[in-house]
Structures are given as C-alpha cells and as structure tokens.
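Please go through the protein record below and see whether the fold suits the sequence. Record follows.
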Amino acid sequence: METKKAILCLDDEIVILLALTRELKMAFGSRFVYEQATDAERGLEAVEELAREGIEVIFVITDWLMPGMKGDEFIEHVHERYPEINAIMITGQADQAAIERIKRNPAVRAVMPKPWNARELVKIIEEYADKI
C-alpha cells in the first residue's frame, strides 16, 4: 500500500484556508490528504497526528502574519523535527527583510504574495511532489 501524503494549510483567516484547500483539491483531487490549521500550535499538532497515522506531510503552506507564532517560526519548528517537509509561505504582510530571512530556510520552496497565483502554487507542489 502506498503511503498517503498530505498538505497542511495554515492561516488564521478561515476564508483563506477554504480557498486554498479548494484550489488544491481542484488541482490534485484525492492525490493528497488536506489538513487545515488556524494557528501554529494547531498546525504542529496536525503534523504530529498525521505522522502518527503514517501520513507523510510533504508540504506546509503557511501565512506569515498570525497570532502567537509567525509562519517563518512555524516552518523552523517543523523543519527541525521533520526536515523532509517542504514549505511555501504566502503573505501580504512580510517586509523585504523578513522575506529574505524566510527564503534562507532550506525547507522553503517559494514565498508568494497574497493573493497568490493558483497555477504557480500548483506548479511548485507538482515539481517537488514528483521528486518524493
């Protein structure tokens, strides 16, 4: 049996999570499991739970500006524990210094502005998912 693979979407705005998940499902259908979290703590719990269930998280797609822990910090925490997980940052708030810092994280495959380009997002995921 093939290992199930998941994409975790993290944003404190529900409407963003719903739109992002809808776009991913339209592009990839049942190829992936789609998880959502509205803050970093729930996102970390979701990664842990998926790992316990034998589901491999291949991507986290996260906003930068969120309550509690910013998206770049979330990516750092995930990368420390699960270095194989790729990340995409989608942000409308990060300044250029923060974006440059985010890009230096080896897990980050792209930093995209809000609103994001759905085709570009799908292309990035396809490129890396095919390598896994």
